[in-house]
Inverse folding.
């Protein structure tokens, strides 16, 4: 989802929106320009791009785009392999299933929805574990060390953190996909767009790219219990102890709602501060972002951690 082609499309969408704003209202050209310039600065504030935290986000994006994505396959075992294994296990237990009397169109729709739910659950579970298990937190805290949020903060993730997530997601999604295919009794393919599950693609465009926005866009009421707004995720990044271990979901808030980790944001902006307190090194440099998590994880193993885990230290979100 987070790739150069997708970001290129996002840039086109942003430019289109700016042009619509620029020409939609008839005031003078100078007033149009001022209005558009203000909107652009609101979307891309200079304080984020010029900060050390923001520059690391940019570096992480370039590192991910031009190096990691070309030399490393994140999922060591594909979801398709897990799906086939699941079907074989179910067949050995229950025998060959009967061909379900539903159209392939309906079966594909069901599979598309199940994969989306499974992916969202995998994201929630992985995220929850990264905050609850001290060794995993040492790698995940690289993401939380961002002191200002922007779209590129999506890429501020330690490779170990990414490796763990993709393999967990591959296994969970594959198991559920294999179970659905077994139930229908014939191979089923999900609806896709650009090679991505359709619901994951749409929810990604509508929500994922905005999750780390610094703009306060909140869902309240029932919508706030079903969907993760940018305000939900800003609360997740907050250093306020009231917000710790809350809002782990990707685009769906239902898992947080079900497991009691949901904090619904208010309509009006809440004063928040981001980052990780208690670090005795610079988290925005190459050493702090890539190497120190290994040192801290090893320290956790030897019970002489340089920084305490979220379970021990209330200042870690």
């Amino acid at each position: 989802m987070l790739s150069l082609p997708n970001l290129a499309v996002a840039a086109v969408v942003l430019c289109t929106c700016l042009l619509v704003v620029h020409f939609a209202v008839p005031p003078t050209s100078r007033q149009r320009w001022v209005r558009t310039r203000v909107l652009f600065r609101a979307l891309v504030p200079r304080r984020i791009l010029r900060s050390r935290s923001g520059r690391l986000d940019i570096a992480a994006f370039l590192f991910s785009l031009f190096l990691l994505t070309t030399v490393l396959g994140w999922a060591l075992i594909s979801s398709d392999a897990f799906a086939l294994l699941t079907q074989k296990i179910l067949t050995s237990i229950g025998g060959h299933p009967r061909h379900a009397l539903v159209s392939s169109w309906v079966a594909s729709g069901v599979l598309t929805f199940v994969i989306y739910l499974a992916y969202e659950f995998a994201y929630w579970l992985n995220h929850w574990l990264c905050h609850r298990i001290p060794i995993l937190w040492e790698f995940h805290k690289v993401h939380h060390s961002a002191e200002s949020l922007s779209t590129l903060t999506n890429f501020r993730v330690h490779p170990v953190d990414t490796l763990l997530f993709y393999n967990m997601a591959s296994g969970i999604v594959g198991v559920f996909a294999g179970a659905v295919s077994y139930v229908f009794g014939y191979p089923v393919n999900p609806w896709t767009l650009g090679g991505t599950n359709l619901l994951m693609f749409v929810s990604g465009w509508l929500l994922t790219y905005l999750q780390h926005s610094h703009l306060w866009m909140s869902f309240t009421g029932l919508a706030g219990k079903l969907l993760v707004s940018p305000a939900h995720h800003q609360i997740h990044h907050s250093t306020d102890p009231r917000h710790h271990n809350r809002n782990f979901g990707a685009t769906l808030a239902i898992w947080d709602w079900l497991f009691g980790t949901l904090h619904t944001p208010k309509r009006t902006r809440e004063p928040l501060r981001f980052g990780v307190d208690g670090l005795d090194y610079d988290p925005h440099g190459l050493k702090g972002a890539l190497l120190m998590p290994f040192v801290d994880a090893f320290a956790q193993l030897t019970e002489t951690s340089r920084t305490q885990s979220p379970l021990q230290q209330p200042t870690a979100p």
User: Anything to note?
Assistant: Confidence is low (pLDDT under 50) at residues 9-14, 304-309, 311-316. The CA atoms of residues 36 and 146 lie 28 Å apart. The first strand starts at residue 192 and ends at 193.
